[in-house]
Amino acid sequence: MSEHDVFLADCPARTTLSLVADTWSVVVVYGLGQGPRRYSDLRERVGGISKKMLTQTLRKLERSGLVRRRVLATAPAGVEYELTELGRTLLEPVGVLARWAEEHADAIAAADSG
Amino acid sequence: MSEHDVFLADCPARTTLSLVADTWSVVVVYGLGQGPRRYSDLRERVGGISKKMLTQTLRKLERSGLVRRRVLATAPAGVEYELTELGRTLLEPVGVLARWAEEHADAIAAADSG
User: Fold this and answer.
1) Scanning every residue of chain A, which has its alpha carbon at the shortest distance from the alpha carbon of B19?
2) Is residue A47 situated within a structural domain?
3) Which of A86, A102, A104 lies closest to B86 in CB terms?
4) Which residues of A touch B31 (CB under 8 A)?
5) What is the rounded distance in angstroms from the CA atom of residue B33 to the CA atom of residue B96?
6) B49 domain residue, yes or no
7) Chain A contacts of B92, Cβ < 8 Å?
8) A60 belongs to a structural domain
């Protein structure tokens, strides 16, 4: 159990929620669900993300201990990203949310145009 | 099963994810989980939200068919918000994400300052 509460403005839980409750964070974390990916591979996987936004999102996730960056000893040098142990705990929540969006997209679109 | 895919930039699933994968949407939907709430009551529940942001968030959720607004025949007139049937399907995903944030806030804060 935790004494933290997302309803409280100044609670660390709110800060943490703000970190992950954003579209790009959800899609990037979800996109790392199958294992490590190179930057270019991840950019291909996450449709529509700009280099700037992918870099920003990865830096934010890295700073928060959710993602690990690794420089590969290849030529040319590549960079790989993977979820940390902490990051893997986020896979279920983002998966549940992403699948909800996939399953309810038609209903939402219908309401929006109704 | 759905043919929609949040990894595709132009997919309705991505649009739907963008609608709900944001801090205020998550907290407001979660805050309506116990049943209808008056505007003022909801604003008290969701710590730190401005009137403008709460109104915008509720309008967005209403337009998407997730929330229903009802004018109460009281004096002074009150306004109440509640989740629709579609909105209630979102309770589990936002609950899972909010609880994740509450449970992992300390680990994230530790990583961030480390």
Assistant:
1) A23
2) yes
3) A104
4) 7
5) 13
6) yes
7) 96, 100
8) yes
Which CATH number characterizes residue B34's domain? 1.10.10.10
Minimal Cα distance from A103: which residue of B? Answer: B2
Instruction: Collect the ranges in chain A with pLDDT lower than 70.
Output: 1-2
CB within 8 Å: B97 and A93: yes
Give pLDDT, residue A3: 85
* Domain-embedded: residue A2: no
The greatest distance separating any two alpha carbons of chain A, rounded to the nearest whole angstrom, comes to 54
Helix (H, G, I), strand (E, B) or coil at A11: coil
* Per-residue pLDDT at A27: 98
Q: Is A80 helix (H, G, I), strand (E, B) or coil?
A: strand
Distance CA B55, CA B69 (A): 11
**Chain A neighbors of B30, CB-CB under 8 A:** 6-7
Chain B, nearest residue to A26 by Cα:
B21
Which amino acid appears at position A39 of this protein?
A: Y
pLDDT in tens, B69-108: 999 988 888 899 999 999 999 999 999 999 999 999 999 9
Structure ipTM: 0.94
Domain count, chain A: 1
Residue A1: predicted pLDDT: 53
pLDDT the model gives residue B1: 53
Distance CA A99, CA A27 (A): 11
Distance from CA of A12 to the nearest CA of B (A): 5
B33 is in which domain, residue-wise? 12-113
